[in-house]
């Protein structure tokens, strides 16, 4: 059978009522050469009953017997994708009119070694000033050492999963989504793939990323688990970038930028009587973390004054970016695995 031009992959778990709008946005596209693969991760809210009503032959529904976790479900979806490229469309989001055609056209314009495209970049302009600064200073195409620096300075550049279209072979050959990480798995895979493939940051608007009370981002980190996963990811960044920079300056940036952010979240949780976050913050250990007393008192002013933290972080980021340019470290990506 001839493979489609693109695979739309949709993970879902208890996706009502939004899954209907998500699927309808695919079915109504003017570009028709696609397949939609939906993997239900054990829904109990009626989602499976709705999926049973779908009759379009381009729509493939798989019902998991047990919950695979979001990372496991994503790996399953990419293993089933028939096309060379896939677009991740989460069940609570939906495509804009003409989106698939725009995605296909974008892939025709990017460098041949591109591993993934992060769409909807203008969304960054609505977020904090660190994200806005990253939007202003980063080039459209990133790879290798410069991509690692960009992820280190500005975090998960693609943002939501629904912003990303990736080459299926790049994701599968790269080992897929980390099965250990539950909260920062998307941050980890995109930064990992950018070591061996070019990544493209695109302003093209493809989908609406919905914010709602049931969104996973609002409940998955209630006990501060994201801090441990960020530490694991940033330890690798610091080790790699230490070849080019003073290690202590990288450690200081991490603590002011990332640890202050988590301390801010811990204080918010403390106000509502949740102690787990601050306990984790005070007990976590890592070579890239300041000692506990310094991490508490040194980060506290930045945690309490968000704008001040962002301005300080941006000033440090500007310095590191200039050093990168000065040392001509824009290395080409390694050969894909």
Question: What does this 3D model show about the protein?
Answer:
With 337 residues, the chain is an alpha/beta fold. It has two domains: 6-208, Spore Coat Polysaccharide Biosynthesis Protein SpsA, Chain A; 221-326, no CATH class. It is built from 15 helices and ten strands. It has an eight-stranded mixed beta sheet, sandwiched between helices. Strands 5-10 form a two-stranded antiparallel sheet. Helix 2 (47-51) links the parallel strand 2 and strand 3. Helix 11 runs antiparallel to helix 12 (276-283).
- Name the average pLDDT: 92
CATH homologous superfamily of the largest domain?
Spore Coat Polysaccharide Biosynthesis Protein SpsA, Chain A
The gross shape turns out to be globular
What string gives the helices and strands in order?
A: EHEHEHEEHEHEHEHHEEHHHHHHH
Radius of gyration: 20 Å
Major sheet attributes: 8 strands, mixed
**How many strand elements?**
10
Report the top-level CATH class of the largest domain. Answer: Alpha Beta
Arrangement of strands in the largest sheet: 3-2-1-4-8-6-9-7
Name the helicity range: 40-55%
The chain-level structural class is: alpha/beta
Q: Give the percentage of residues in beta strands.
A: 5-15%
Distance between the termini: 27 Å
The total of helices stands at: 15
Say what the CATH topology of the largest domain is: Spore Coat Polysaccharide Biosynthesis Protein SpsA, Chain A
User: How many discrete structural domains?
Assistant: 2
Low-confidence stretches: 329-337
CATH architectural grouping of the largest domain: Alpha-Beta Complex
């Amino acid at each position: 059978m001839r493979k489609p031009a693109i695979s739309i992959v949709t993970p879902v778990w208890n996706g009502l009522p939004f899954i209907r709008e998500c699927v309808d946005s695919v079915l109504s596209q003017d570009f028709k050469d696609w397949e939609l693969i939906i993997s239900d991760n054990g829904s109990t809210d009626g989602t499976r009953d709705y999926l049973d009503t779908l009759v379009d032959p381009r729509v493939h529904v798989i019902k998991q017997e047990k919950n695979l976790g979001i990372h496991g479900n994503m790996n399953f979806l990419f293993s089933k994708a028939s096309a060379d490229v896939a677009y991740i469309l989460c069940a609570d989001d939906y495509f804009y009119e003409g989106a698939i055609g725009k995605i296909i056209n974008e892939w025709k314009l990017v460098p041949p070694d591109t591993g993934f495209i992060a769409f909807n970049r203008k969304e960054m302009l609505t977020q904090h000033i660190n994200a806005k600064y990253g939007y202003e200073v980063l080039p459209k195409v990133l790879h290798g050492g410069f991509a690692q620096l960009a992820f280190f300075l500005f975090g998960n550049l693609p943002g939501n999963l629904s912003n990303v279209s990736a080459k299926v072979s790049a994701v599968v050959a790269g080992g897929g989504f980390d099965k250990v990480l539950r909260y920062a798995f998307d941050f980890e895979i995109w930064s990992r793939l950018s070591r061996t493939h070019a990544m493209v940051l695109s302003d093209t608007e493809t989908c609406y990323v919905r914010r709602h009370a049931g969104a996973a981002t609002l409940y998955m980190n209630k006990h501060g688990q994201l801090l441990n996963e960020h530490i694991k990811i940033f330890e690798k960044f610091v080790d790699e970038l230490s070849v080019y920079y003073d290690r202590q300056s990288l450690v200081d940036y991490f603590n002011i930028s990332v640890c202050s952010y988590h301390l801010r979240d811990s204080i918010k949780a403390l106000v509502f009587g949740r102690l787990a976050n601050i306990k984790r913050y005070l007990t976590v250990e890592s070579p890239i973390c300041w000692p506990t007393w310094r991490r508490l008192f040194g980060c506290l002013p930045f945690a309490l004054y968000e704008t001040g933290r962002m301005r300080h972080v941006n000033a440090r980021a500007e310095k590191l970016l200039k050093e990168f340019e000065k040392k001509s470290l824009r290395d080409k990506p390694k050969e894909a695995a």
